[in-house]
Structure formats: structure tokens, C-alpha cells
Amino acid sequence: QVRLVESGGGLVQPGGSLRLSCAASGFTVSSHPMSWYRQAPGKEREFVAKITPIGGRTNYADSVKGRFTISRDNAKNTVDLQMNNLKPEDTAVYYCKSNYLPNWGQGTQVTVSS
Questions:
Q1: In Å, how far are 33, 36, 46, 98 from 27, measured between CA atoms?
Q2: What number of other Cβ atoms are within 10 A of residue 21's Cβ?
Q3: Taking a C-beta distance cutoff of 8 angstroms, is the pair 24, 74 a contact?
Q4: Nearest in space to 39 (alpha carbons), one of 111, 87, 94
Q5: Cβ-contact 64, 72 below 8 angstroms
Q6: Measuring CA to CA, which residue among 3, 1, 4 is closest to residue 95?
Q7: Best CA proximity match to 89, nearest among 49, 46, 59
Q8: Is 17 exposed, middle or buried (CB count within 10 Å of its CB: 0-12, 13-18, 19+)?
């Protein structure tokens, strides 16, 4: 059974950092392109970052480029998102997803506020 569990969210001041983690079960993250998405209140879910299964190539939304880093831990079967220099507009629920599967996790709330 496929399951995705996001964690690591919280309340942080502007300029701060958070590290999100996505624990996958039922499939191997190293074999799937994995992405992070986010959804802010009243807005549609949007793409944040992606990592490919072969070569670990990454790409990012323009809004987070240079501040966020996606990575994969094959031993733990997790995908992480390191978020630095956070801005209030980064406030959202963050989700991870396999590009091959329709499943979503419950998400983790990130709030950037002073």
C-alpha cells in the first residue's frame, strides 16, 4: 500500500529555515521522480521542486530557486526539502508526491510570520 507522510513543518520567522521530510512506503523513491508541491490558503496547489530517479537531477519553481533544495535518502526511502531564507509568501501546506502515482500525503503546514 502506497503511503506518503510529510513532516517537519512549523512556524518560523522570515529569513529562517525549515527542513521537511517525506517518508514513503509501498514503493521506492529512488525509482520514481519525486516532487514537492504546496498549497496556500485560497490558492491552487503549485509545484515547488522535483528530483529525478536517475542522476538525481533537480528543478525548482522560480519562486524558490536558490533558497530551497530537494534531496533524497535512498536508505531511509525519504525525500527532503531544505528551505532557507523563508518568506511569508512561502506559507502553505507542503506535500510530496511521486510523479508516477496519484497518491498524496496529508501534508505539513509551514507558516512564515514574525
A1: 12, 17, 24, 9
A2: 17
A3: no
A4: 94
A5: no
A6: 4
A7: 46
A8: exposed
- Rounded to whole angstroms, how far apart are CA atoms 98 and 4? 9
What is the identity of the amino acid at 26? G
- 24 with 8: CB under 8 angstroms? no
Q: What is the pLDDT along the chain (114 residues), one digit of tens a residue?
A: 999 999 999 999 999 999 999 999 999 999 999 999 999 999 999 999 999 998 899 999 999 999 999 999 999 999 999 999 999 999 999 999 999 999 999 999 999 999
Assess contact for 80 and 10: CB atoms under 8 A.
Answer: no
